[in-house]
Amino acid sequence: xxxxxxxxxxxxxxxEDLVIRNEENSVVTxxxxxxxxxxxxSEAMLKILQRELDSISNNENLRLVILQGAGNVFSxxxxxxxxxxxxxxxxxxxxxxxxxxxxxxxxxxxxxxxAKVHGIATAAGCQLVAACDLAVAAEGTRFATSGINVxxxxxxxxxxVSRNISRKRAMELLLTGEFIDAETALNWGLLNRVVPxxxxxEETQKLAEAILSKxxxxxxxxxxxxxxxxxxxxxxxYTFAGKIMACNMMAEDVSEGVDAFINKRQAVWKGC
Length: 272
Description:
Helix content: 40-55%
Number of domains: 2
CATH topology of the largest domain: 2-enoyl-CoA Hydratase, Chain A, domain 1
Strand content: 15-25%
CATH superfamily of the largest domain: 2-enoyl-CoA Hydratase, Chain A, domain 1
Number of strands: 10
Structural class: alpha/beta
Radius of gyration: 19 Å
Strand order of the largest sheet: 1-2-3-4-5-7-10
CATH class of the largest domain: Alpha Beta
Largest sheet: 7 strands, mixed
């Protein structure tokens, strides 16, 4: 794993590292770095991503993650050449478990994850976008769950995709394998923002700064609560959310935030 000093540009890179990590202040940028293979999610890349996400998750000084792809695309999904070379069901079960664990880590870790997307995001690449908390895409980016085109229904990508967009739209993606453009993905709920490619860094940074300006305790608490309550029926979700909110009310940051609001000053967060 290489820890780069500067954010990796789209045109990347002769580096052999499958994932490049850059830390700037409290923000980590992870760059998928197999541009010649369209950033296909090989076994090795999945393992490195998991290791990096676990490391970030355990560091409360790190407050946000940006996930991007090197070269001309975000990610074309699983490495089909690698998959077809291992024609054993046990291998496929382990591969998809490994990938699913990584995807779930994106939701379970306290830091918000922003996908910065360009080019294409297909199959598990589209899944990766859907699994992130937020997503900013460049105009012209295209999205698809294209496994159906080779006889493979995108079952695991269907999990986060169907939790981002409506059932009928998800089924259209999954059953046709056809691409949708960035504006359609925005309208369907897969994306937060779509901007010209020249402005994607700026727009992603704006979104990150809006989050970083808030109490880290509130952000970490809120992300965990958000995904957990989705697992409950509405009444149980309200009960759970009420307990979390009551606990959150006891934090020093809430007292500071309310006092700052009343006295019309900038809050100074402690993260506790």
